[in-house]
Amino acid sequence: MENRKMYSNRVMITGFLGRDAETHTTRNDSSFTTLSVATKRSWKNRETGDYESQTTWHRCVVFGPQATFAATLLKGAHVQIEGELRTREYTEKPAGKKSPPVKKTATEIRVYRVIKLDRSGKPDSVEAAA
After folding, report:
1. Which of 6, 92, 114, 129 is the most buried (most CB within 10 A)?
2. Domain range for residue 71?
3. pTM
């Protein structure tokens, strides 16, 4: 039997947009859309009995045909995002002239599929061609 290792980098989140979608252009004149999606988890504090919650913000980057669809999404939209986690490094310019550049790391979701969840009707979506 062949020894196979399986790897998976797949994420699915459901949340609300914290601001309108933003469209950007790359140096190669292609465009992409970024979404800021909030997810929330809640729990009951065992000591106090109070309910507590924590909101996590996710930067989602959408390319290709689904980027056009994602660009129409507005703050407050309820969405489901499917994609993979990507980590990138970048250098932040210093605030002052004497400060050295600072290397930073950003974790984002590279989106394969965006679904707009709407209680009044059928969900809208665009899926990347496989």
Report:
1. 114
2. 15-42+52-127
3. 0.77
